[in-house]
TrEMBL record:
Organism from which the protein derives: Brachyspira murdochii
Pathway: Purine metabolism; IMP biosynthesis via de novo pathway; 5-amino-1-(5-phospho-D-ribosyl)imidazole from N(2)-formyl-N(1)-(5-phospho-D-ribosyl)glycinamide: step 2/2
Name of this protein: Phosphoribosylformylglycinamidine cyclo-ligase
Superkingdom of source: Bacteria
PurM-like C-terminal domain: residues covered: 172-328
Predominant cellular place of this UniProt entry's protein: cytoplasm
EC code: 6.3.3.1
Keywords carried by this UniProt record: ATP-binding, Cytoplasm, Ligase, Nucleotide-binding, Purine biosynthesis
NCBIfam families xrefs: purM
Every PurM-like N-terminal domain range: 54-159
Amino acid sequence: MSISYADSGVNREEGYKAVSLMKEVVAKTMHSNVLNTIGSFGAMYELGKYNNPVLVSGTDGVGTKLEIAFSMKKYDTVGIDAVAMCVNDVLCHGAKPIFFLDYLACGKLNGETASLIVKGIADGCYEAGAALIGGETAEMPGFYKEGDYDIAGFCVGVVEKDKIIDGANVAEDDAVIGISSSGFHSNGFSLIRKLVRDYNAVFEGEKIGETLLVPTKIYVKKVLPLLEKYNIKGMAHITGGGLIENVPRAIAKGYKAVIKKDSFQTPNIFNYIRYLGNIKEEEMYNTFNMGIGFVIIASKDDKDNIIRDLEAMNEEAYDIGYITKNEDEGKSGICLE
């Protein structure tokens, strides 16, 4: 008896359908630096005019937030999360994201579902100004359950070597500016899923699942103009580990950030999750972003102007703290007040 690839559970025709549906949404992210189209063995990108370019790369996934999306059959936003987690990271070093590649794995491919996921990825790339120049869709029956998908991505950005931001110039009395998050972004969902059992339950007038699925905010187009105007010394994307773990990554050794907890608004959904699990305050700040998705460290003389510029771009921004000497000169740190 002869056996085919289809007999193993892989449907080539559904894969062709998925690619066809994806092409239109991917095309909107392309620009003149992309030298070839979807279907090549490798993607080609021309850097253009730089004096001494440094490539900055980042890779990440969406994590267990996906389980909520698929339970609610909402497939078009988690792709934005995949992009945001990567582009916001490379932005922290002053790099402009230039291209993105995605990886989508599943047990049984549904072309329409896959195209909605990739639509979200394309939307995120468009918002970040990055070209979606390639990707991989892997159908793996027997490894993933039917209906399960996993999403990951890889971003490359570029920055002039003399404009790299790495926290080395952070100094005492510098200001710490926080930009609001859009919710939990893509972190802490293993804990959230233990506490929220019914995604259709109503929270503040809408299904709590919808609130939890609000995609990660992309900060690229709001922050890049600031780099041209101000002496920004450090930046942090507030992901897993929350403010406690991520802010020190943007600070030179020998200094610490003092964060004023009452200086910014924490959305009610965070307090609700804390209530459900009777979670200690420190655990909240060490797991979730608590309403601050991105942090900028700059001279205190620039603080008010930076906040004013962000507000003019419809971003909520706060003066959330300052930099001081750290007792352990060999480490960077953080203190919550």
